[in-house]
Amino acid sequence: MHKVLVIDDEPQIIRALTVNMKARGYEMIAAPNAAIGNALAIDRHPDVIIVDLGLPDRDGLTVIKEIRTWSNVPILVLSGRTDSKFKIIALESGADDYITKPFDVEELFARIKAVSRRREEKIELRSIIMGELEIDFTRHGITRVTGDSVAPHLTATEWKVLEVLAHNRGSLVTKRKILDAGWGENYAEENGSLRLFILQLRQKLEPNPKSPIYLLTEPGMGYRFVEV
């Protein structure tokens, strides 16, 4: 049973999540403000933390930053702030994913499963499957599982971009995080370069580059690698 700490001051949200968590076999811990949430995070060791940004005693971004100083527990933001700038700030502060209110319950639990799975998996990602391609990160090689055509070749930077997306599979990865991984901090504003490399990766790896199913764009924010 996974323990999920929900830091949110809206009673209706807590009631709805309590019912749905119990129905799906999760143990839910509720906190109405940042102070109690921080204390419960330390005392109860949750497997996942869900936090609202508009808490009564402190901004949720501060909570995320504080938790990140001592824990790598997966953090999901559940907030009514829909502006992409808040999403980007939350993700760069240490959140693993961001869902806006009102939210779809099934999507929320799919995101919880995704971040939980990444925590349980080994830190080192050895390989992934994309259609008929097996991507091996240990040797930086690609094998075509079916067919006789030659497997594509990736450049060093393309490998870096793909690796940061694959290691965070299921989660939104901001442009800044991908740029830092691929080019370093000196190139943090080179969004044009990033778009080009994503396009090249789709051309080489997606079954249909014009309709990608693995390397998805989150408009204005970043990209997401999805396992199909």
What labels would you give this structure?
three-stranded antiparallel β-sheet, 20% strand, five-stranded parallel β-sheet, 228 residues, alpha/beta, Rossmann fold, elongated, 8 helices, 42% helix, Arc Repressor Mutant, subunit A
Structure description:
This protein is an alpha/beta fold and 228 residues long. The chain folds into 2 domains: 3-120, 3-Layer(aba) Sandwich (Rossmann fold); 127-225, Arc Repressor Mutant, subunit A (Orthogonal Bundle). It is built from 8 helices and 11 strands. The strands form 3 sheets. A 5-stranded parallel sheet has the order 2-1-3-4-5, with helices on both faces. A 3-stranded antiparallel sheet has the order 6-7-8, with no helix packed on it. A 3-stranded antiparallel sheet has the order 9-11-10. The chain starts with a strand and ends with a strand. The model has no long low-confidence stretch (mean pLDDT 87).
SSE diagram, text form:
Layout: E1 3-7, H1 11-23, E2 27-31, H2 34-44, E3 48-51, H3 60-68, E4 75-79, H4 84-93, E5 97-100, H5 105-120, E6 127-130, E7 133-136, E8 141-144, H6 156-167, E9 172-174, H7 175-183, H8 191-205, E10 215-218, E11 222-225
Parallel strand pairs: 1-2, 1-3, 3-4, 4-5
Antiparallel strand pairs: 6-7, 7-8, 9-11, 10-11
Helix pairs in contact: 2-3, 6-7, 6-8
